[in-house]
């Protein structure tokens, strides 16, 4: 082996090390995000017993009585859908502005 071959092997080693490090960071961040979602999901109680009755956890994070639960969940889902629709309308508007033919 001459010097050129050794330099080439060292370069390949460093590139593999860099790619493995970046891949490891990406995989660990994805695993950590999944872990956090599972932790939050399993640690938050869906119901709480109080002296005044049982409270249920709504989708927005508040604890409410059973009568308000369905209404709050429906409002929360509606607001999320409206937000998504407005974002998509804005994207369409930007795309239409960007594709106009200017004379």
Describe this structure in words.
Keywords: Membrane, Transmembrane, Transmembrane helix. By secondary structure, the protein is mainly alpha-helical. It folds into two domains: about 1-45; about 45-103, no CATH class. Helix content is about 70%, strand content about 10%. It contains two helices and three strands, in the order αβββα. It has helices at about 5-45, 65-100, and strands at about 45-50, 55, 65. Strand 2 and strand 3 form a beta hairpin. It starts with a helix and ends in a 5-residue tail after the last helix. The model has no long low-confidence stretch (mean pLDDT about 85).
Short description:
With 103 residues, the protein is mainly alpha-helical.
| Helix share bin | over 70%
What is the subunit arrangement here?
single chain
Largest sheet: 3 strands, antiparallel
Number of helices: 2
What structural class do helix, strand and pairing data support? mainly alpha
Question: How much β-strand is present in the residues?
Answer: 5-15%
Radius of gyration: 27 Å
Number of strands: 3
The geometry reads as: flat
Helix-strand pattern: HEEEH
**Uncertain stretches of 5 or more adjacent residues:** none
State the strand order across the main sheet.
Answer: 1-2-3
- Mean pLDDT equals 87
Distance between the termini: 64 Å
Total number of distinct structural domains: 2
Keywords: Membrane, Transmembrane, Transmembrane helix
Transmembrane segments: 12-35
């Amino acid at each position: 082996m001459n010097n050129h071959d050794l330099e080439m092997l060292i370069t390949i080693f460093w590139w593999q090390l860099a790619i493995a490090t970046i891949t490891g960071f990406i995989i660990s961040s994805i695993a950590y995000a999944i872990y956090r979602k599972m932790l939050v999901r399993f640690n938050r109680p869906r119901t709480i017993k109080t002296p005044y009755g049982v409270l249920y956890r709504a989708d927005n994070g508040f604890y409410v009585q059973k009568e308000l639960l369905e209404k709050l969940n429906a409002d929360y889902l509606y607001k999320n859908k409206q937000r998504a629709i407005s974002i998509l309308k804005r994207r369409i508007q930007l795309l239409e502005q960007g594709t106009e033919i200017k004379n």
